[in-house]
Amino acid sequence: MENLYKIPRHIAIIMDGNGRWAKRRGLDRIYGHREGVEAVERAIRFAKKVGIEYLSLFAFSTENWQRPTQEVDAIFSLLVEYINLKIPFLKENNVRLLFSGRRDNLSEHVLQAIVRGEEETKEGSSLTVLIMLNYSGRAEIVDAVRKIVREGVKDIDEESFRNYLYNPDIPDPDLLIRTSGEERISNFFVWQLAYTELYFTPVLWPDFSEEDFLKALYVYQSRERRFGKILDE
Ligand code: FPP
């Protein structure tokens, strides 16, 4: 009964299906990403409304560089446009924007936008939106190990290892949602998903509505999280 009406603190989303959404309409994939940004906005509003504290969105993986340059450029342009346009909305709604992932091969233009987005929203205390950009879960673990080696740390356990991850202060996701019918983790949060509830839906990301989000929450609430223990009847 404990989980009934329980709102997850942290929801992570793999926003998949933008390309297929566009293709089904005979449009270029880029229109799917454009519509995907509308779905991002909807998800942020919904998360805020129901009191979720952390919303992580997988926007661009390290593997996504293998897409055609035109599509990669379009995704980054949409992101920069979103940051620049939405800072007032995010501030009004007390939302903090954070970016996670390797920053080394991002263009100066993108870097400036994300630094500005983080800086301008840093006071946001009701919802943190973590945008995963140029991110891969394995790369994050490798980066953590590199840091540990560099610092000459000799002894490490699970709790201290966490401090070397990109965002040690953000709790692990309670719920992972992946849209578009694919049922894989695809190198998203690899360390952090150990005990996360997984929810897969066939809905394509641009179509992901408040109702779909609510459905995912209901499924989460109906599950019993045991963390390896046996719970009393
Ligand atoms: C997955 O669909 C989507 C992406 C790789 C890009 C997602 C990026 C955005 C929605 C824009 C980011 C903007 C903000 C504000 C976070 P896909 O292209 O893999 O779809 P497919 O599997 O149908 O081809």
Describe the structure.
The structure is a single chain. The protein is α/β, with parallel strands linked by helices. It has one domain (10-136, 174-221): 3-Layer(aba) Sandwich (Undecaprenyl pyrophosphate synthetase). 42% of the residues lie in helices and 15% in strands. The protein is built from seven helices and six strands. It has helices at 18-24, 29-50, 69-92, 108-120, 137-150, 158-162, 210-222, and strands at 10-14, 54-61, 95-100, 127-135, 175-178, 197-200. The protein has a six-stranded parallel beta sheet with strand order 3-4-2-1-5-6, with helices on both faces. β3, α4 and β4 form a beta-alpha-beta unit. α1 (18-24) packs across α2, α2 (29-50) runs parallel beside α3 (69-92) and α3 (69-92) packs parallel to α4. The model has no long low-confidence stretch (mean pLDDT 95). Farnesyl diphosphate binds next to α1, α2, β2 and α3. Farnesyl diphosphate is lined by residues 15-20, 33, 36-37, 40, 57, 59, 64, 75, 78-79, 82, 131, 180.
What is the mean pLDDT? 95
Strand segment count: 6
> Strand fraction band?
15-25%
Q: Give the CATH superfamily.
A: Decaprenyl diphosphate synthase-like
CATH topology: Undecaprenyl pyrophosphate synthetase
Return the structural class. Answer: alpha/beta
Question: Can you list the strand order of the major beta sheet?
Answer: 3-4-2-1-5-6
The shape, in one word, is globular
Largest beta-sheet characterization: 6 strands, parallel
Low-pLDDT residue intervals, each spanning 5 or more residues:
none
Radius of gyration: 18 Å
Q: Please give the count of helices.
A: 7
Q: What count of domains describes the coordinates?
A: 1
Taking the alpha carbons of the first and last residues, their distance comes to 10 Å
CATH architecture: 3-Layer(aba) Sandwich
List of distinct ligands in this structure: farnesyl diphosphate
Helix proportion of residues, in percent?
40-55%
Q: What is the H/E order?
A: EHHEHEHEHHEEH
Report the CATH C-level class. Answer: Alpha Beta
